[in-house]
Specification:
Elements (H helix, E strand, L loop, with lengths): L12 H8 L2 E2 L3 H9 L10 E5 L5 E5 H18 L1 H6 L4 H14 L4 H10 L6 H12 L4 E3 L2 E3 L11 H13 L4 H8 L3 H7 L4 H9 L7 E4 L4 H4 L13 H4 L9 E4 L2 E10 L8 E7 L5 H11 L7
Antiparallel strand pairs: 1-3, 2-3, 4-5, 6-7, 7-8, 8-9
Length: about 300
Amino acid sequence: MKAQGLSSPSGDGLAVVRRLVGLQAQDHWIAQYAVRTRARSGRLADVGIAWTMRGTLHLVAAEDLHWLVDLLGPRHAAGYAGRRARLGLTDALLRTGVRALVDRLPATRDELLAVAAEVGVPAGQARAHLLAYAGMTGELCQIDGEFRRIPAGRKVPDDLAGELGRRYLTGYGPASAEDFAAWSGLPLTVARKALPDQASTKDSAKDDASPVPGVKLLGHFDPYLLGYRDRTFALPAAYAGKVQRGGGFLQPVVLVDGMVAGTWTRTQGTGRRKGEMTVSVDAWADVPAAGLAAEVEDLNRDWWRS
């Protein structure tokens, strides 16, 4: 919790993104929930969205977009080759499609999908895969709600995998090479070589490893669980199936003193309570009522605009 900024929230949204390298962001609100629990201000600036860790969309600092895509994008693009072939995306169509997308930039997602249709990409998932392929191969990213060329990095690390390993340990350590590989999508052999020695990290963690007692509501795909292959430090194995219900989809969870005590869902109010959020908890351990009420109250303020 200390490494992830959950014990003592501080800074703004950009500071959280930098600390955790990236926040999963298929939908904009997923990243916002991760920011809320770790920052005093939800303000986000100088960030972009790209296909990085595990080949999924992540919100990352604009200055990190270039080198993260260079390191991770081609690996994940190659991993989806079979899927693209089954969707009818031949090598020739990929080249034609990517050129057409780049020529149309800047553009919205709908506008780029229309471009894909114009060059003959089949309807359905093929067009989304073309867009992802263009992103993974370094041709585009999303900034301020529209797709653009990836900005040049201010400083590109000499050792990309080593830089990612160092950054990972800062925000997630102590952690294993298996955790790093699962989080990043890098092969385990690469992850083992890239991860720095953790002796000093483990020693400092022993000195101050106690989380601040209390209740926290974490959103979908929160890094507190998503950052590790082995989650038993916080999630008892008996309840893992309640949190990860198929594939890599992680439910929102309730933390009590750092341990997952249940899952939660949100409901927006109607009528006089329009705009007010209520929370339903499915708990398998005690959840202090006062702590839960404080978290729900915080969810209902405009924290992402502060």
